[in-house]
Task: structure prediction
Amino acid sequence: MIVEEAIPEHPNLVKRYSDHGYLIRNDQTGNKYEEAVDVIGLHTYTETDEYPEGDEEELTDTEALNIIMGRDGNEEA
Result:
């Protein structure tokens, strides 16, 4: 099942992930993620039956938020 969590510091964003550790697939793009943070109502996701690969590099929460917000990483939140 896909879990959705509010992000109190950013009330217009929601974090989604599988409660079983599976990848989730963005229904609009087909891209797969361990977890996704989006503007509420922007995308929908479907849980896959695939586990993530163990050797992928993970972004920190700050790096991911900077990507979503269109920042270059040198700006303050």
Remarks:
- The longest strand covers residues 13-18.
- The helical segments are 61-69.
- The CA atoms of residues 13 and 39 lie 4 Å apart.
